[in-house]
Amino acid sequence: MGWTVQTLTGRVRRQAHEMRRGALELRESELRYRGVVDHVHEVVFQTDAAGRWTFLNPAWSELTGFSAAESIGEPFSAFVHPDDRHSNLERFAPLMRREVESCEHEHRYVTRDGAVRWVQVRARLILDEEDQVAGVTGLLSDVTERKRSERDALAEQRVTRALAESSSEEEALRAGVQAIGEALGCSAACCGPARRAASRRACAA
Fold this sequence. Notes:
five-stranded antiparallel β-sheet; 7 helices; about 50% helix; disordered C terminus
């Protein structure tokens, strides 16, 4: 075909050079991506198909107090508040069944020191080369302050309504305390006589 050793050698060298250049560009792209991911405030995450963390950026440690290294390989559900685990899995179910392309919901996570943080989860599937579910990727955003503001606003609304509907000072006090307890998710015991007595003393002062 008229090819000489020199021609073939030249083609091989050009191909090798292009491969090295492609690998270098890919590496540079990966480094740029990692530089961005490592400095965003949201948690960037990936899990495998079984729900175990496979990637977490540094924001995870800021949110939960757990390091990425000790969390990788652990099921994400282990960090979700026990009372929210069932509903959390229910929200993910349509995504894992591929009924939706993405999902978004809010649940409570528990930090290393036992504190509770409200987290907004935005997730989509990772598919492998055979179009099978390989895992999930997405973002976790701390929305604790927003949830606290919403809770306080709800408490204020309920107290205002309870006071307006009360016919006496005693009834207003009782209704107000109950309304606050309901808005805060407080049990009846936590809004019992002792708490009401403290409220009376505060009002009297």
